[in-house]
Amino acid sequence: MNTFLGAAQRLEAKDVDLGVVAGAGITYLEGYLWDPAEPRAAMEAAIDAARAAGRKVAFTLSDSFCISRHRDSFLQLIDDGRIDILFANEAEITELSGQSEFDAAVAAVAPKVATLVVTRSEQGAIAVSGGERASVPAEPIERLVDTTGAGDLFAAGFLAGQARGLGLEVSLKLGAIAAAEVIQHYGARPEKDLKALAGDLLA
């Protein structure tokens, strides 16, 4: 997989099917696309359509360098209540919050969003929603091959659980299973049947 962050820089608001967004339970957006004006406008249009339809918006901070450039904009999105589910890793949540200690960073951001999800590599992941906090360990793997796609696959698993009305812990577990699968081979697409790997969790 050859990654090119400019691949979607020509995405415009007119390219977004707002009807699809309005009909989706959760719309997932990438912080990587906040740099160029056109994709940012497209994402803002999607956010507006989702919120107008009473749907949820999930947003991933994507990378610490995105936060270093757009911290104020990201915080404004959060403070304005435009994000329901925020995804970050440990480095990103500390960068966003300005807190160097992990628990302090989570405590600073969690009250501002309905659901905060933070991945911690081999230490697993945590989620905070309202007064509930859940955590899961990382799934065991045979060997680490390529971490490309790990964050997005984790988000896919977590959101699959949330879309089905499952709890935080089960949703985290689904995310961990999906991420563990994709890091054991090259490429960002799963090679195994994730539904089969999830087993009874999706029953």
Sum this structure up briefly.
With 203 residues, the protein is an alpha/beta fold.
Provide structural commentary:
The protein is built from 8 helices and 6 strands. β1 (26-30), α2 and β2 (56-60) form a beta-alpha-beta unit. The chain has helices at 18-23, 37-52, 64-79, 90-97, 102-109, 150-163, 168-182, 194-198, and strands at residues 26-30, 56-60, 85-89, 115-119, 125-129, 132-136. It has a 6-stranded mixed sheet with strand order 1-2-3-4-5-6. It is of the alpha/beta class. The chain folds into 2 domains: 9-119, Ribokinase (UDP-N-acetylmuramoyl-L-alanine:D-glutamate ligase, 3-Layer(aba) Sandwich); 144-203, no CATH class. It is 43% helix and 15% strand.
Descriptors for this entry?
globular, 6 strands, UDP-N-acetylmuramoyl-L-alanine:D-glutamate ligase, 2 domains, alpha/beta
Q: How is the CATH topology of the largest domain named?
A: UDP-N-acetylmuramoyl-L-alanine:D-glutamate ligase
User: Quick one: biggest sheet?
Assistant: 6 strands, mixed
Give the % helix. Answer: 40-55%
Structural class: alpha/beta
Major sheet: order of its strands? 1-2-3-4-5-6
Indicate the low-confidence ranges by residue numbers: none
Write down the overall geometry. Answer: globular
Describe the secondary-structure layout.
Elements: H1 18-23, E1 26-30, H2 37-52, E2 56-60, H3 64-79, E3 85-89, H4 90-97, H5 102-109, E4 115-119, E5 125-129, E6 132-136, H6 150-163, H7 168-182, H8 194-198
Parallel strand pairs: 1-2, 2-3, 3-4
Antiparallel strand pairs: 4-5, 5-6
Helix pairs in contact: 3-4, 4-5, 6-7
